[in-house]
Write a structure and sequence with these properties.
With 290 residues, the chain is of the alpha/beta class. The protein has helices at 42-49, 71-74, 93-101, 109-118, 132-144, 162-177, 189-195, 213-218, 259-266, 281-289, and strands at 2-13, 16-22, 25-27, 31-35, 57-62, 65-66, 78-81, 150-154, 181-186, 198-203, 206-212, 222-228, 241-246, 250-255, 271-277. The protein contains ten helices and 15 strands. A six-stranded mixed β-sheet has the order 7-8-9-4-10-11, sandwiched between helices. Strands 1, 2, 3, 5 and 6 form a five-stranded antiparallel β-sheet that branches. It is globular.
Length: 290
């Protein structure tokens, strides 16, 4: 059974396209990635599927029910963490979470305590005294406190330090093992590769590809930046290298292939510094979809 089914979902703001003909399915029990550059239409798609804004055309079903017609009903089974979080500043964290829990028909007290301990969240502080990262933790606890069947995460890790990000990832994996379906929206490819089974890639409001994460990882590029003296950039003009840019002291390029070939070249150079990183999604789009 599919937890989510998008049926040519389209949202225009006047003449401006938010998303158009979004058409894919998320299987029940799956961790599904939804990735694209900032401004690609991820948040618009999510807000429309949650009927926080209404579609221009098309539809979404969640657990077999129309997400617009039965919005208030299906949202009881959804935990949603938006990309931007705004709260009542003068409320204490515990009061805000209790208020959120009051919308559900079961006692969430123990769950709030458990999640807050995992995320190292101080329940007695006021919202206005929290850093952006701690406000994000409040959003995570708020989204999970009712043990939802469907978890929708829109850029969930912004503001979290690396250690807390890993705790959050572990938490999501545990929720998934208990049976929760997860839609994970991000512009950070490595996050999606770590968590997800499949991904839909959105660009300029339209789905450009739906892929298995293993296939995406296999085809991914690495970005090299090399600093040194008298660098012979001609040595890097090999198969798999693209976007080669060079001066006497710096060489940058993208590489797809056996990384040992690059290591062999580098080993004969006098380097001051080297940086190997994942390209941004914008850079990956440039290679995959030009």
């Amino acid at each position: 059974m599919n937890a989510i089914e998008f049926n040519k979902l389209t949202k225009f703001y006047g003449k401006v396209k938010g998303c158009e003909d979004i058409d894919f399915q998320v299987k029940e029990g799956e961790i599904f990635g939804f990735i694209g550059p900032n401004g690609a239409g991820k948040s618009t798609t999510i807000r429309t599927m949650l009927s926080l804004i209404y579609p221009t055309s098309g539809s979404v079903t969640i657990f077999g029910k129309d997400a617009i017609k039965y919005g208030s009903e299906v949202r009881k089974d959804i935990g949603y963490l938006p990309s931007e979080i705004f709260y009542y500043d003068r409320m204490k964290v515990i009061d805000l979470l209790k208020y959120s829990a009051s919308f559900y028909d079961h006692d969430c007290t123990n769950r709030i305590k458990e999640l807050s301990e995992i995320m190292e969240l101080d329940l007695n502080r006021k919202i206005q005294d929290l850093s952006y990262g701690n406000k994000k933790k409040v959003g995570i606890v708020q989204g999970l406190l009712h043990s939802p069947k469907l978890i929708i995460l829109d850029e969930p890790t912004s503001g979290l330090d690396p250690l807390m990000q890993q705790k959050f990832f572990n938490l999501i994996v545990e929720e998934n093992k208990k049976g929760a379906t997860v839609l994970f929206s991000s512009h950070i490819l490595s996050e999606v590769q770590q968590l997800c089974n499949r991904v839909a890639i959105i660009k300029d409001g339209s789905i450009v590809s739906i892929q298995d994460v293993k296939a995406l990882s296999k085809d991914s590029y690495k970005k090299f930046t090399i600093h040194g003296k008298d660098l012979n950039h001609g040595k890097f003009d090999i198969e798999g290298v693209s976007e080669l840019k060079a001066t006497d002291s710096k060489v940058t390029f993208f590489f797809k292939g056996d990384v040992n070939e690059i290591v062999s070249i580098i080993s004969n150079l006098k380097l001051k510094d080297i940086l190997i990183e994942e390209p941004t999604l914008e850079e990956i789009f440039m290679h995959y979809y030009e």
